[in-house]
Amino acid sequence: MSTAAIVVVGNEILSAKVADENGPFLARELRALGVELRRIETVPDEVPLIVEAVRRCKAAARWVFTSGGVGPTHDDVTIAAVAQALGRRVVQDERILAALGAYFGDLKAAHRRLADVPEGGEVTWPEGRLFPVISCDGVYVLPGVPSLLRSGFHGVRERFRAAPIFSRAIYFSIGESSLAEHLDATVAAYPAVAIGSYPRFDDADHRVKVTFDGRVQVDVDAALAFLRARVPLDAVVREE
Amino acid sequence: MSTAAIVVVGNEILSAKVADENGPFLARELRALGVELRRIETVPDEVPLIVEAVRRCKAAARWVFTSGGVGPTHDDVTIAAVAQALGRRVVQDERILAALGAYFGDLKAAHRRLADVPEGGEVTWPEGRLFPVISCDGVYVLPGVPSLLRSGFHGVRERFRAAPIFSRAIYFSIGESSLAEHLDATVAAYPAVAIGSYPRFDDADHRVKVTFDGRVQVDVDAALAFLRARVPLDAVVREE
What is the pLDDT of residues A168-197, one digit of tens each? Predict the structure, then answer.
């Protein structure tokens, strides 16, 4: 199964200093790649909490992406936490050290921290990019600055591509309480299709949007048709 | 300690159908109330995963807020999961049933589900609001529709107000590697102040923003002054 989970290392998000862009970006990208995102955990910049989150995400999904906590300062603890979660030491990567030396010249201790990787990890240096992508045992350590995270992810994204997830939706003018029994019947008839029901309480043209998601397109289409056939025709606003 | 955690019950967020507004909204509100947000978990609409997330959040924080999964349809499983996480049965609340009866007249099974609460839970009905806020043992079950979540939270928010968190920031024109040793010294000198370092790689007027957060204003101010005094004056762009 192609599944993923995200750990956002984010004091700045928990304290509402900035809104997280990286979780939503990765959710959209993974969806487009056919990867099922199973959880997002946003945790403080504290090693024990990151270790637990990475372990939990690894147990829940094939791929784990971390966002943030990468760099030369005291609050950049993600590499150490990922290594601990994977039972690996932190070592210095020679290729990153060489690149840092070429860029900065004389390297301070803070510069050298940028070369830290979990022992046995993979360092991928996408052409033309300033920073490498560090990964180990399916855990990808991405920077928190959104432009850098996007750039790093784009350099490796094709390795996650899986069978597509098909999605359809139908919009109703009747409320959820009237739909509930028909939804129950549809869920029971199509166990391989994920069905979601989303009410609205504003002046949109519909009161409920029902979504159908699955790996098999004919099942997704059939589940939608099954529900539509059970509901009065004039309650259907539109489909997509 | 006044701490909180959020569980977002969100297939629609994990599948990137919608961007979560509720986590960022609650983060801003809690911050303004002086409540420290310790984690946000976004999980699928699946009872075992919600149960685990609620238990973990309860262990990590005084207040837990859930978002979504409340309503009359098959994917509305949050009440059942919260009750299970707290070791309580699900029962029907008489006051909600009476309100539903007054609104809908004859109640279907789907309507009755809206009256489900964890046994012993509290039902707060803020004046003029359509839906009550259901809570139990410090866990607040809020709806996923953003306007309803906001309305519900505003009806109870004053009960969470705590001592304010003070925040300041200083912007530098030098990079993180040059700041790192001075940040380390500041972190060591002011253990009660949370210090964050946020680099930029665009054409902003600064390269690094350093933030200082704490419950004691003089400590926050002193930590900022301590760092500023260690860095060349012309490296400081501004403070706030």
Answer: 999 999 999 999 999 999 999 999 999 999
ipTM score here?
A: 0.95
Cβ–Cβ under 8 Å, residues A142 and A133: yes
A41 with A145, same domain: the answer is yes
Q: Please, which pLDDT band fits residue B1 given cuts at 50, 70 and 90?
A: confident
Rounded Cα distance, A192 and A176, in Å: 22
The model's pLDDT over A38-59, given as tens digits with 9 standing for 90+, comes to: 999 999 999 999 999 999 999 9
User: How many A×B Cβ pairs under 8 Å?
Assistant: 171
Work out the number of other CB atoms within 10 angstroms of the CB of residue B198.
Answer: 22
Task: Give me the domain span that covers residue B30.
Answer: 3-160
Q: Side chain identity at A193, as an amino acid letter?
A: V
- Taking only residues 177 to 206 of chain B, the set having a beta carbon closer than 8 angstroms to any beta carbon of chain A reads 177-181, 183-184, 187, 194-202
The model's confidence at residue A87, banded by pLDDT at 50, 70 and 90, is very high
Buried b (16+ CB within 10 A) or exposed e, B120-150: ebebeeeeeeebbbbbbeebbbbbbbeebbb
Partner-chain residue, chosen from B11, B23, B199, that has the shortest CB–CB distance to A194:
B11
Single pTM value for the model: 0.96
Q: Are B17 and B37 found together in one domain?
A: yes
Q: Are residues B138 and B204 in the same domain?
A: no
Strand bridging mode A139-142 / A63-67: parallel
Tell me the two tokens of residue A185. 């019947």
**Contacts of B82 by beta carbon, 8 Å cutoff, 6+ apart:** B50, B54, B66, B118, B136, B139, B141
Shared domain check, A104 and A8: yes
Residues of B within 8 A of A23 (CB-CB) are: 42
**pLDDT for the residue B45:** 96
CATH number assigned to the domain comprising residue A220: 3.30.70.2860
Q: How many domains does chain B divide into?
A: 2
pLDDT of residue A131: 82
A208-214 and A122-124 strand pairing: unpaired
The stretches of B105-193 forming alpha helices (DSSP H) are: 109-113, 146-156, 176-189
The backbone torsions φ and ψ at residue B134, rounded to the nearest 5 degrees and listed phi first, read -105, 130
